[in-house]
Hints:
The chain has 466 residues and is an alpha/beta fold. It has helices at residues 17-32, 50-64, 69-78, 89-98, 116-125, 144-157, 173-184, 214-218, 221-239, 248-261, 390-400, 409-419; strands spanning 8-12, 40-44, 79-83, 105-109, 133-136, 163-165, 197-205, 270-275, 293-298, 310-315, 322-329, 347-353, 356-365, 373-383, 429-432.
Amino acid sequence: MNSPVSDALVFFGATGDLAYKQIFPALQALTRNGHLDMPVIGLGRSDWSVDQFIARARDSIEQHGTLDAGAFKKLSARLQYLSGDYLDNSTYQRLRVALAGANHPLHYLAVPPEMFDNVIRGLYRSRCAKNGRVIVEKPFGRDLASAQALNQLLMQSFPAPDIFRIDHYIAKEAVQNLLYFRLANSFLEPVWNRDHVANVQITMAESFGVQGRGGFYESVGAIRDVVQNHLLQVVALLATDAPADHHADAIRDAKLQVFRAMRPISPAQAVRGQFHGYLEEPGVQADSAVETFVALRLDIDNQRWAGVPFYIRAGKQLPLTATEVMVTLKSPHHPIFDAAETGHGNYFRFRISPEVQISLGARVKLAGEAMLGEAVELLAQHHDSVEMSPYERLFGDAIQGDGSLFARYDSIEAAWRTVAPILGNTVPLEVYEAQTWGPLQAADIPSGDGGWHDPAPTKDSNGSAG
Ligand code: BG6
């Protein structure tokens, strides 16, 4: 790759929650591995000194990672902090001065979606964008029209290869493994279609609430926060035909075909919920109709998947934290299989987080005269999630100019078209109690297919078992 390596990292939203939870630990890891040998300039609205900023970075890493004294010392020496209003031109003038020695700055926008426009315009006008790159956080826009407008603005300000649209799910090891496992195992392809798959379920459950991010969450809700991006990307990897080769664009071309074949979700096939207590969260409107839970049915109208329901469920304040995919196969329909036995138990189960598991559900005969069996699960792979963090990986890639693991704009547009009918308040909002599996109505969505599969608690999932 001939593109220049970025020589300064600027991050907007440096005092915010995302920076605190994800970005500082990723910056320390990049520093430790020698991939961040450049000034790191944080921007935020709080009037902090650089020492306060460094203290915040240390605290963040202690809370959400492990402090490495040597790497942190190097990182602290590179940290600078600029406070300013994103609407004020002088903020960008001061950034320009701070960037004096850099020719290819990388700007990362961890700001609320409604601020993207202002920051991009400010970077462009001040010439901070010149020869630079930009990483834009998800969700990319609020709907199709705003995504188009945002994209247009970005394309006017940065060359196309220098625009990076983040979706950290794509960079998760376990998510990439979905495609790898499918394509690397010849026993899967013959059954990976409408002839053999009964339904697919994806559950992204989180046992916590909005964790002080009420203000951000009010502008998104579960559909925009995790379905339009993370979970539809998971669907695309599960459902895609084999890409022409292993290059990133071949994979993204193949996924695009799936995104385009997704039928816009019918409001009649969706349930929205809000956990009891959400309205009392800081930053939340007293009469907010924002959903913290969604359950829906998605159809993919192509030769491989027509008629196979993809059930998606995501929510906050559920009984545990786990993201899991369940691909249930059709019944074998053989007389040897006793119909009185409950369920045929033929499935593939992919646990994406917190730990990584791939397992195969099957039935085996019980010892004895009768042709009766029991369900077993064969674990194909299991490891604790010790992967490089998605943010470390994505920042490292963007610094090198490699956009392989970022979302491509055409698929983002197609994803907005898919969720368009259920945005806003087209689907009534139901209240659910915290630490339950969402509103009771959610059970109706897959009712014809045996109901929801609830991920089991493990030691890492904050569930009760372990
Ligand atoms: C983020 C969402 O994109 O993903 C959060 O904004 C969500 O609401 C998070 O909690 C989950 O990501 P992970 O990697 O922690 O499972």
